[in-house]
């Protein structure tokens, strides 16, 4: 009886191993002939699949390029509030931007556009260029407010408070210094003051267009406005200074809240963001800014209306920073219901050459760029990680939150391991 029982058990034990042997033979045959052709066959299949994938992406880019040349039909007037900040931008203002804004106002209808510009202490002749823009807008009946501020960065930094606060923090250089992000947030909120004031008096707009110092076209703006059929909490363009690298890495986060895997196409770690990009469709992201942004104006109305901000000074002292242009999406309840989208078919440039390079006659990416980009992205995702960088920041945020009960920062995905302070001639990392 014991021998019989043992024999039955031995058979039971051998069965799983027999199954493993069969699977091994299927995947890695013992025949030397079949084994010799297995690796080349797999390699050929992978190569063929990746080439077909690149061809399909290129086809979709071609279709998107054709559609982008056609301005979407506007069934009824759309009221647009344009908000913009400028500092030492005389060259682009005179070369393109002023005429671009006037053309945009004509396209939407002068009566449907309001332009607010905040200039802050430029040392070139940006003020003179903006005075010319004001004259051009007035000539065609476009309501506008262009604030020319004599306060320079150096003036902002002249009289620090006796102790830290209101954007001033102690730095590793042993002194109180003014943070860059709260300064920019104040300027952006100032650019929205007329929007809120007009709403209180019964004059409202459909959208706010935040417009950087970029080269753009009227079709760019129309297509951005109609991103995802007009259903969004925010829609952003894609910006370039030195193509093929995109520019605004500080504000762009993929659908999972991660920074880019690579600065060239297809950029993202998140499969949701990457798959939409490959289809040339609106890309779901957690945050974006990237040169041009549309947001429904209603988000800024009322006592609970959105406002730009920086992270708390006490958190910034942990050597942590977050873009005001990312935090605005983190604070917006509609970001989590309507969504934030990057429109890859709307590309703007910080100089004329960059704009031209991303607006060729046909698709803006070649077959080789697409194929190599897809594989580079895979290798970055497979062999690199953002976990360590994100853990460092999360750890500092956690320490800050535990210092005082009730502390919380909603824009965790915006935070990076940096400290940015204002300088007389710009800003710096410290």
Explain what the structure shows.
The protein has one domain (about 65-405): Spore Coat Polysaccharide Biosynthesis Protein SpsA, Chain A (Alpha-Beta Complex), CATH 3.90.550.10. The protein has 14 helices and 16 strands. It has helices spanning about 1-25, 30-70, 90-110, 125-140, 155, 180-190, 195-200, 220-225, 270-280, 315, 325-330, 350-355, 365-385, 385-405; strands at about 80-85, 115-120, 145-150, 170, 175-180, 205-210, 235-240, 245, 255, 285, 290-295, 320, 340-350, 415, 420-425, 425-430. Strands 1, 2, 3, 6, 7, 8, 9, 10, 11 and 13 form a ten-stranded mixed beta sheet that branches. Helix 2 packs across helix 13 (about 365-385). The longest helix is centred in the N-terminal third of the chain and has 37 residues, at about 30-70. Mean pLDDT is about 90; it is low at about 1-10. It comes from Diplogelasinospora grovesii. This is Cryptococcal mannosyltransferase 1-domain-containing protein. One of its GO terms (molecular function) is glycosyltransferase activity.
Q: Topology, pairings included?
A:
Elements: H1 2-27, H2 32-68, E1 80-86, H3 90-108, E2 113-120, H4 126-139, E3 143-149, H5 153-156, E4 168-170, E5 176-178, H6 180-191, H7 193-200, E6 207-211, H8 218-225, E7 234-242, E8 245-246, E9 253-254, H9 271-278, E10 283-287, E11 292-296, H10 313-316, E12 321-322, H11 324-331, E13 340-349, H12 352-357, H13 367-383, H14 387-403, E14 415-416, E15 420-423, E16 426-429
Parallel strand pairs: 1-2, 1-6, 2-3, 7-13
Antiparallel strand pairs: 4-5, 6-11, 7-8, 7-11, 9-10, 10-13, 12-14, 15-16
């Amino acid at each position: 009886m014991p021998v019989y029982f043992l024999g039955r058990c031995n058979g039971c034990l051998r069965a799983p191993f027999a199954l493993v042997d069969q699977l091994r033979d299927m995947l890695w045959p013992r025949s030397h002939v079949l084994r010799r052709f297995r690796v080349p066959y797999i390699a050929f299949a992978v190569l063929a699949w990746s080439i077909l994938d690149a061809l399909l992406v290129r086809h979709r880019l071609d279709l998107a390029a054709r559609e982008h040349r056609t301005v979407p039909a506007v069934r009824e007037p759309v009221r647009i509030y344009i908000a913009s900040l400028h500092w030492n931008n005389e060259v682009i203002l005179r070369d393109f931007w002023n005429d671009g804004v006037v053309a945009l106002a004509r396209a939407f209808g002068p009566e449907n556009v309001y332009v607010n510009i905040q200039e802050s202490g430029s040392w070139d002749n940006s003020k003179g260029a903006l005075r010319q823009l004001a004259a051009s807008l007035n000539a065609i009946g476009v309501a506008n407010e262009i604030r020319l501020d004599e306060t320079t960065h150096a003036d902002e930094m002249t009289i620090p408070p006796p102790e830290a606060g209101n954007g001033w923090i102690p730095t590793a250089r042993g002194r109180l210094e003014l943070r860059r992000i709260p300064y920019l947030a104040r300027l952006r909120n100032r650019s929205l003051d007329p929007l809120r004031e007009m709403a209180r008096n019964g004059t409202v707009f459909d959208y706010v267009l935040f417009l950087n110092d970029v080269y753009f076209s009227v079709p760019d703006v129309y297509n951005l406005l109609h991103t995802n059929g007009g259903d969004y909490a925010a829609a952003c363009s894609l910006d370039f200074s030195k193509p093929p690298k995109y520019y605004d890495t500080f504000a762009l986060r993929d659908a999972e809240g991660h920074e880019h895997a690579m600065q060239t196409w297809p950029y993202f770690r998140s499969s949701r963001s990457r798959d939409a990009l490959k289809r040339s469709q609106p890309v779901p992201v957690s945050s974006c800014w990237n040169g041009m942004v549309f947001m429904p104006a209603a988000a800024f109305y009322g006592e609970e209306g959105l406002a730009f901000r920086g992270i708390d000074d006490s958190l910034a002292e942990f050597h942590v920073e977050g873009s005001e242009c990312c935090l605005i999406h983190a604070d917006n309840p509609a970001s989590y219901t309507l969504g934030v989208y990057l429109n890859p078919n709307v590309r703007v440039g910080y100089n004329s050459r960059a704009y031209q390079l991303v607006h060729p006659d046909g698709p803006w990416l070649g077959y080789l760029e697409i194929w190599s980009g897809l594989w580079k992205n895979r290798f970055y995702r497979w062999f690199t990680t953002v976990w360590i960088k994100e853990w460092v920041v999360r750890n500092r945020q956690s320490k800050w939150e535990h210092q005082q009960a009730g502390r919380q920062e909603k824009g965790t995905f915006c935070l990076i391991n940096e400290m940015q302070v204002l300088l007389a001639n710009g800003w710096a990392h410290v």
